[in-house]
Amino acid sequence: MGVPQPNLLTHESCISSSRIRAFLRVSRNLTDDTIRQHLNEVKSEDCGDYFRNKIGSEWKKRGEVISYCKNYSKELRKSSEKGVNVDTGESEGTFDELNKKFDLRTDPYALRAHQNKMQEQFAQCDALDSWVHNEETVENIIRQQTIEVLNDKCYYQDWMQAFKNLK
Predict the structure, then answer these.
(1) How many other C-beta atoms can be found within 10 angstroms of the C-beta atom of residue 76?
(2) Which of 19, 97, 148, 163 lies 20 to 30 Å from 51, alpha-carbon distance?
(3) Which residue ranges make up each domain of the chain?
(4) Confidence (pLDDT) at 132
């Protein structure tokens, strides 16, 4: 599958997650979903190598992608809580600063537009948090199923510990 493309790891990709979801789906399909078939071709003494080279490396890539979006969500939420518009980088500031920034006599809707933008950012945070949580849950379920197959087809080992040792 290879390393996730650098242009895949952007803030926009996290917000509009179709490309990242496609990457996760393909990665899961090539490794975890077809593990029984692949393990039929692997000798039991080679299971550790197979896990390190195929399964563990894909788990790591998928984890990095999900973590990137999780960290971006945290940054976005912090900025939104401070009243920073992530598009412009401008801070909302105090009430007096807002009144100076938005001359409601010349543009009575400027303040409302800014408030709507902040609400939109919070909605993006909520959607992104939900998406990340769902992907983490799916990843945990898939890893548990893969571990069960590895234990059935190969030999019992603490595969999660083996994965942590890869990092």
Answers:
(1) 21
(2) 19
(3) 6-166
(4) 95
Q: Are 117 and 85 in contact (CB under 8 A)?
A: yes
Tens of pLDDT along 87-105? 555 555 555 566 666 666 6
**Which DSSP helix (H) or strand (E) runs through 19?**
helix 18-30
Whether the CB-CB separation of 32 and 55 falls below 8 Å is answered with yes
Q: How far is 32 from 144, CA to CA, in rounded Å?
A: 10
pLDDT tens for 114-154 read 777 778 888 888 999 999 999 999 999 999 999 999 998 88
* Residues contacting 72, CB < 8 A, separation 6+: 11, 14, 128
Closest by Cα among 68, 62, 66 to 11: 68
CA distance linking residue 134 with residue 140, whole number of Å? 10
Q: Provide the β-strand partners of residue 91.
A: 84
The tokens describing 157, both together, are: 């080992």
Q: What are phi and psi of 3, to 5 degrees?
A: -75, 140
Lowest-pLDDT choice from 29-43, 62-76, 146-160: 146-160
